[in-house]
Protein: diphosphomevalonate decarboxylase
Amino acid sequence: MKATVRAHPNIALVKYWGKRDEALILPHQSSLSLTLAPIHVTTTVEFGAGSDQVELHGHVAKGSERDRVLRLLDAVRVQAGRDLGPAKVVSRGDFPMAAGLASSAAGFAALAVAGRAAAGLPSDTRASSILARRGSGSACRSVQGGFCEWMRGEREDGEDSYAVQRFDAGHWSDLRMVVAIVDRGEKEVKSRDGMKGAVETSPYYAAWVKDAEAEVPRARELIAKKDLEALGELCERNAWRMHSTSLAADPPLCYLSPATLGLIQNLREQRKKGVPVWFTLDAGPNPVLLTDAAHEVTAEAVARACGAVDVVRCVPGGDATLLTEHLF
Ligand code: DP6
Structure:
């Protein structure tokens, strides 16, 4: 009745931005990401506790944070088809910075896999991905390592909306992602609210959906060929288009800070000098630089010279895995 899982976060190369169903977390378009190591979240779940208890990153979870965890475990109970009793959950991340990279994707992926294992359900990446998705959309892409594609699906119940691994972490072990923290503050508008604004008010939203869907198979092909330059260009284009969609929302939403722009523009100079480095940007000010092993030190130096206060160098990460040591 107790299981512990470690999962890595992921960074989308083709972003998910907007839901067609908010309750089930079903996206308007497919997306594609790379799982990142070494950063990770570890989560222990035990059913049969005295009462429901949720501790996340050293504090007792309350309100909507607690509800999201307990709702996911309710879905595990339904899958198990029996009364598992109250649950105790403890989760800890080793994310070195506050808001650089969201820990929720790794957290919900670890919770989904640990929840199923604690309930005695067999290992099943598809079922775990669907469960993780119901905690946070991007979490469905952290159940497996390497390059994962979240297929939007067509069904209303979401049973065909989950992530599949296209290439494992070993496929392109030379690839590097360098997270550049230019701003440690909490983001003002969470992804969940930002994408809702885009869906409801951006006149560019329909174009975004069509374009992102078409970019996924192109990205897959470039990853198969390990074409860093073309993948870097695709990533930048997709990030700009996601952000443009939200810039055109009402009220407009801009996640970029002056430091973000300074760093992004400097990358063009680097490329002119022959340094292969591109960026992607989630719903916040901190760019993630895409480069190769030979240039990760240069990429870090460029980020710091452009004002990054912290830098985390990442490599392709593996699957969410069961651990034998528990957190309690
Ligand atoms: C910009 O998965 O955090 O990082 O489904 O509402 O929990 P919810 O949102 P979340 O959004 C991630 C948005 C993104 C792009 C991406 O990861 O694909």
Remarks:
- The pocket of DP6 is lined by residues 12, 15-16, 25, 31, 102, 104, 136-138, 191-192, 282-283 (CB under 6 Å).
- The chain has a mean pLDDT of 96.
